[in-house]
Write a structure and sequence with these properties.
Family: Belongs to the adaptor complexes medium subunit family.
Distance between the termini: 66 Å
Pfam families: Adap_comp_sub, Clat_adaptor_s
Strand content: 35-45%
InterPro entries: Adaptor_comp_med_subunit, AP2_Mu_C_sf, AP_mu_sigma_su, Clathrin_mu, Clathrin_mu_CS, Longin-like_dom_sf, MHD
Strand order of the largest sheet: 11-13-9-8-23-21-16-19-18
Subcellular location: Cytoplasmic vesicle, Clathrin-coated vesicle membrane
Structural class: alpha+beta
Keywords: Cytoplasmic vesicle, Membrane, Protein transport, Transport
Helix content: 10-25%
Radius of gyration: 27 Å
Number of strands: 23
Number of helices: 8
Largest sheet: 9 strands, mixed
């Protein structure tokens, strides 16, 4: 439960101040910037939660604006920080850019939004589309305000009634990001999958959707046997539209969706994965030059193709005179990143590609392997998931009985995907052919 919400400039001067409970003097905000500076000096970084004299300051920064909420209660910090993120999202939706100038130009609308988004310190309506139905850009003009939409007064605050489409469609994307760290020998040191199910909903009325996945826990709890692979998801987080009680009782994902684009759920899987794109590297350091050989391997099924592959290989910051030769794609030296980037538009599963690079080194230096950055890889593989998660069904029920078309797509892409490089070979022990 928040006591007050402030929007501050970079010097800590209040641009907007909204007191909800009156239990904290507004002058308490004057201690925010000194307290933040003290913590940054002690910790080396600013903490999102600060406390002094029984007052808790929760904050986030967006460009040249601080969004701060104060409380004396034993409040849920994550709830208040989430509210600040929603407030940031709403203001950005209204003004396109959340910065000091846009706040000064629209303070009347901001006070109206704060009154609707929070009541006596308790978050209420935080969906931009619902707020935009009755708080418009012209709301500072003295006009008769339109009636609040039904979404504000009923239990489904994220969707308005009366939505109509000529063609009813649902697009569902299962997007998995692979986080991985690989040592120079090609062994995986750490790996996990961060997944998200994203939807675009263009449905009339107030539809009820039910989504079924090959969820291992669901099959075990019901005593059923999965026809294929079952996946055990961890750290599941849902959009507020999902009926959590229904999911907890029988693992059914049932919901009335928002209109348009939203993220239905996220999940994580800890799994020992093999690298989808493996890069083997050989480095030779000589007096006045350094040479690289990079072999890229697409270690997934031949019927799949990785699109937009980018392999960034770090080089010494003073390297110059680059020369490249590759069997596929294009290579570019990017001096501001101290790396060369190998781009492969399409990399088919089971294929290999080879790159050789040569750089001049004007200075002699000792290469510290602990400080040598790893190779980073970007890619996107459509129609493919590493975890094996599958949408078993997506049912759409609406009282008018219309037919809707569901479309499902699977995408695997890189997350924090890094491969450590070996120590440079001693000249003469692994002689690379000249370019």
């Amino acid at each position: 439960m928040a006591s007050a919400v402030f929007l501050l400039d970079l010097k800590g001067k209040p641009l907007i101040a909204r007191d909800y409970r009156g239990d904290i003097p507004l002058t308490a905000i004057d201690r925010f910037m000194p307290l933040l500076q003290e913590r940054e000096d002690e910790e080396g970084t600013g903490l999102p939660v600060l406390t002094e004299n029984g007052v808790t300051y929760l904050h986030l920064r967006e460009k040249d604006v601080y969004l701060v909420t104060l409380t004396r209660k034993n409040a849920n910090a994550m709830t208040l920080l989430q509210f600040l993120h929603h407030l940031c999202k709403v203001l950005t939706e209204y003004f396109k850019a959340l910065e000091e100038e846009s706040i000064r130009d629209n303070f009347v609308i901001i006070y109206e939004l704060l009154d609707e988004m929070m009541d006596y310190g308790v978050p209420q309506i935080t969906e931009p589309k619902i707020l935009q139905e009755y708080i418009t850009q012209e709301s500072h003009i003295l006009e008769i305000m339109p009636r609040p939409p039904l979404a504000v007064t009923n239990a489904v605050s994220w969707r308005s009634e009366g939505i109509t489409y000529r063609k009813n469609e649902v697009f569902l994307d299962v997007v998995e990001s692979i986080n991985m760290l690989v040592n120079p020998a090609g062994n995986v040191l750490s790996s996990d999958i961060q997944g998200a199910i994203k939807m675009k909903v263009y449905l009339s009325g107030m539809p009820e959707l039910r989504l079924g996945l090959n969820d291992k826990v669901m099959f075990e709890s019901t005593g059923r046997t999965a026809k294929g692979k079952a996946v055990e998801m961890e750290d599941i987080r849902f959009h507020q539209c999902v009926r959590l009680s229904k999911f907890e009782s029988d693992r059914t994902i049932s919901f009335i969706p928002p209109d348009g684009e939203f993220e239905l759920m996220t999940y994580r899987l800890n799994a020992q994965l093999k690298p989808l794109v493996l890069c083997e590297s050989v480095i030779e350091s000589h007096r006045g030059r350094i040479e690289y050989m990079i072999k890229a391997k697409a270690q997934f099924k031949q019927r799949s193709t990785a699109n937009g592959v980018e392999i960034a290989v770090p080089v010494p910051s003073d390297a110059d005179s680059p020369k490249f030769k590759t069997t596929i794609g294009s290579v570019k030296y990017v001096p501001e990143r101290s790396a060369f980037v190998w781009k492969i538009k399409q990399f088919q599963g089971g294929k290999e590609a080879l790159l050789r690079a040569h750089f001049g080194l004007p200075s002699i230096r000792d290469d510290d392997p602990e400080r040598r950055p790893p190779i980073s890889v970007k890619f996107e593989i459509p129609y493919f998931t590493t975890s094996g998660i599958q949408v078993r069904y997506l049912k759409i029920v609406e009282k008018s009985g219309y037919q809707a078309l569901p479309w499902v797509r699977y995408i695997t892409r890189n997350g924090d995907y890094q491969l450590r490089m070996p120590d440079p070979a001693t000249p003469g022990t692994s002689r690379l052919p000249p370019i």
